[in-house]
Amino acid sequence: LKYSNLKLVHADAYSFMENQHASFDLIIMDVFIIDRIPEAFQSETFLKLLIKTLSPKGSLIYNTMRLTLPDDILLNMRNFLIPEFNEVYVLEAVNGTNNLLLAKEKKFNQ
Questions:
Q1: Which three-class secondary structure state does DSSP give residue 107?
Q2: How far apart are CA 85 and CA 81, in angstroms?
Q3: Around Cβ 36, how many Cβ atoms within 10 Å?
Q4: Which residues are registered as beta bridge partners of 104?
Q5: Which residue from 33, 59, 81, 100 has the least number of CB within 10 angstroms?
Q6: What is the C-alpha separation between 72 and 36, in angstroms, rounded?
Q7: How far is residue 1 from each of residues 9, 30, 60, measured CA to CA in Å?
Q8: 79 Ramachandran zone, left/alpha/beta (phi>0; psi -120 to 50)
């Protein structure tokens, strides 16, 4: 595909986000080691990095595995994002195996 404004990044996600100074309109997180998301990527610290790096009207799509990410952790992640974005959703049982955490458009106080 050829899109002049599309940049795909394949890198260590934590390092990339820690050192990122640009902003993005869309961030898609799909971070698994086998079937688990490493704890560092579930942390408020990492979520803050994602928020900081999204453009004001940006969107976050965070893919999680239903069987290995406990519901309370997904709920905590969602609840952390709610004050930061105008819209936050969890799409459950995508393809029967995954939940998608979606956040869209940062609130004006950002």
A1: coil
A2: 6
A3: 15
A4: 59, 87
A5: 33
A6: 15
A7: 15, 20, 22
A8: alpha
The tokens describing 46, both together, are 């990492």
Q: Is there a contact between 13 and 31 (Cβ–Cβ < 8 Å)?
A: yes
Task: Name residue, tokens 């990339």.
Answer: 16
Whole-angstrom CA distances from 97 to 51, 86, 91, 93, 102 are 26, 27, 11, 6, 16
Helices and strands (H, E) in the chain, number of each type: 3, 4
For residue range 89-98, list pLDDT tens digits in order: 999 988 888 9
**Residues 6+ away with beta carbon under 8 Å from 49:** 17, 18, 20
Laid out side by side, the sheet with 24-29 consists of 24-29, 54-65, 98-106, 85-94
**Interval 41-100: pLDDT, tens:** 999 999 999 999 999 999 999 999 888 889 999 999 999 999 999 999 999 988 888 999
